[in-house]
Write a structure and sequence with these properties.
The chain is an all-alpha fold. The chain has helices spanning about 10-20, 30, 35-45, 45-55, 60-65, 75-95, 105-120, 125-135, 145-155, 160-165, 175-180. Helix 3 (about 35-45) packs across helix 4 (about 45-55) and helix 7 runs parallel beside helix 10 (about 160-165). It starts with 8 loop residues before the first helix and ends with a helix.
């Protein structure tokens, strides 16, 4: 049974959620955190390349796609591990009436932002794509109410990711202007 799982339960579940909801862009599943992680990877590396790795269950190719712009193998392993920790913690919390914050929530997003920065330093990313990436971040400043409420529910500091992204000065002006309106 293990050989049917792509990389780990978290990655596999994220891909399953993405594949089942990518044509239902208004659905809750399409906007769930695990699905959005794949959406961010697709934005960074291209849907065809990312999905092909999943469909062929080719873990080595997936690692090569993620690391091709300078993400180190250790950073890749950290991303995979952190996502799995987020997933396991989140699954344990679902059964509890009083939920705790998930310390891995913001770490996963920081990993993704770091991938964006590495790619941008190797190959300039169009400002529109960077803005689209920013819109997929789960922060208390998100324009998407579901993303905002998820950030408040899961993050110890729901502003941390927004602040981290803005400190990178990767998208000048547009992000700040929109949030001040």
């Amino acid at each position: 049974m293990q050989n049917n799982i792509f990389i780990n339960d978290a990655i596999d579940s994220s891909f399953k959620l993405y594949v089942s909801s990518k044509d239902k862009k208004d659905s809750l599943n399409y906007n769930k955190f695990l699905c959005v992680i794949i959406r961010m990877l697709v934005l960074l590396f291209g849907e065809e390349e990312i999905l092909e790795c999943y469909e062929k269950k080719d873990e080595e190719s997936f690692k090569n796609v993620i690391t091709k712009y300078g993400t180190t193998e250790d950073e890749y392993k950290n991303f995979i591990s952190t996502l799995e920790k987020f997933y396991n913690f989140n699954n344990r919390q679902e059964k509890k009436s009083i939920k705790k914050k998930n310390k891995y929530f913001n770490l996963v997003q920081k990993n993704l932002i770091d991938m964006l920065l590495k790619k941008n330093s190797t190959e300039k990313i169009d400002n529109t794509k960077i803005k689209d990436f920013y819109e997929l971040l789960f922060t208390a400043r998100s324009n998407n109410f579901y993303f905002k409420s998820t950030a408040v529910l899961l993050a110890y500091n729901p502003y941390e990711i927004d602040d981290y992204f803005k400190k990178q000065n990767i998208l000048v002006g547009e992000v700040d202007e929109k949030n001040n309106n």
